[in-house]
Amino acid sequence: MKKYLTALLGLFSISILITNMLGCQSQSLVAVENDAFVLGTFGQIRVYAPSEEEGLKAIAVAFKRITELENAMGPSLVGSDVYNINANAGKTSVQVSDDTLKVIKEGIKYEGLTSGAFNITLGSLIELWGIGKEWQKVPSPADIQDSKEHIEIINLQIDGNKIMIKDPEMLMDLGGIAKGYSVDEAVKVLKANGIKSGFVNLGGDVYAFGQKPDESKWAIGIQKPLVNSNGVVAKVLLENQSIVSSGNYERYFVDKGIRYHHIIDPATGYPSDSGVVSVTIISDSAIDGDALSTAVFILGHEKGMELVEELEGVDAVVITKDNTVYISSGANDMVEILDKTYQPAD
Questions:
Q1: Residue 187, CB-side half-sphere exposure with 13 Å CA sphere
Q2: Where does the secretion signal sit in this chain (predicted)?
């Protein structure tokens, strides 16, 4: 479910950030970059390393780790943990990797923390709508109601590393959290390979660590929440933090003049209509940002901000339909609104 978060000035500005990075090398560090198509999206890793060879080696190991996680949790990859869990729903339990188990447990935690707004067992509804797939359509109310009967996370059973879905019509989808976990793991790999500064960007789930050689923080832009826009609403300065956005302008289809986006509200079975158009979560880990950006979008700015203010190490920027920008208390000094058609909340 995600996410177009851009460095400084929208998707185009990722290039600006990279250009600045390559032109700002210290005497002891060189800027190294590489890209790969992973997790169904464009992945970018940029680091400062003692040498180009060491940087490329560290990046390669990080991408290898990301691919390993994709192979474990990709729902459509035959033989993955998630594929096997879904294929055996209502039949038997499936032995899963420690990574998959950890992500599932985090998903269950966030389902409770968000009063069900975030739900890793929403797969039947996601498949029913098929947004972004060749069968995308507006389902009938009866089909939506039927699918809603099969999203109860209580039917997810854990026994050690064995996972079972007791409801034969339930489907698990870790797409709203696995990408964030992969970002966090990639950063761990880079650090373990001697990299002290850089960023990982997987389809807009970003983690920036360390400082640039000039000791400045990383500048990340929040995309203007409009379809096909590369503009930026605000910039955020980061150091050793994650930033993840969700918006209704990302994946969608139009039917009879109505746009249906991909963020499905478990309570209604329809795309969320909370009055929110964009949520950006700034947190200490990308897995938290991944889950919370979706949940806050569905909860709406009031309930969503109440939740964020209760959580340690988490901040949010929420944009509503009327172009109002709500900034959590801990992020006021980190966020600068650049587009004056968007106004901060009173």
A1: 26
A2: none
Measured from the Cβ of residue 144, the count of other Cβ atoms closer than 10 Å reads 17
Domain that holds residue 95: 73-165
d(CA 323, CA 300): 14
Tokens of 106: 């985090």
User: What are the pLDDT digits (tens) for 159-200?
Assistant: 999 999 999 999 999 988 999 999 999 999 999 999 999 999
User: Which residue carries 């990301």 as its tokens?
Assistant: 66
| CATH number of residue 129's parent domain | 1.10.3980.10
**Averaged pLDDT of the chain:** 91
Phi, psi of 188 (to 5 degrees): -60, -45
What's the confidence (pLDDT) of residue 16?
28
Asked whether residue 156 is assigned to any structural domain, the reply reads yes
Amino acid at 137: K
Residue 13 has pLDDT above 50, yes or no: no
Pairing between β-strand 343-344 and β-strand 324-327 as defined by DSSP bridges: parallel
The model's pTM is: 0.91
Distance, CA of 224 to CA of 342 (rounded, Å): 9
Judged against a pLDDT cut of 50, whether residue 10 lies above it is answered with: no
pLDDT digit string, tens, across residues 259-271: 999 999 999 999 9
Q: Is 62 exposed, middle or buried (0-12, 13-18, 19+ CB in 10 A)?
A: buried
Residue 322 counted as domain residue = no
Cα separation, 173 vs 178, in Å, equals 9
Number of folded domains that form the chain: 1
Q: 105, 109, 116, 76: which is closest to 272 by C-alpha?
A: 116
Domain presence at residue 113 = yes
Element (H, E) at 144: helix 141-148
Decide if 105 is inside a domain: yes
| Tally of helices (H runs) and strands (E runs) in the chain | 9, 17
In the DSSP assignment, the letter for residue 76 is: T
pLDDT digits (tens, 9 = 90+) for 98-133: 999 999 999 999 999 999 999 999 999 999 999 988
The SS3 call for residue 296 is: helix
Asked if 203 and 183 count as a contact pair (C-beta separation under 8 A), the reply is no
The answer to whether 90 and 165 have CB atoms below 8 angstroms apart is yes
State the DSSP code for 154. Answer: G
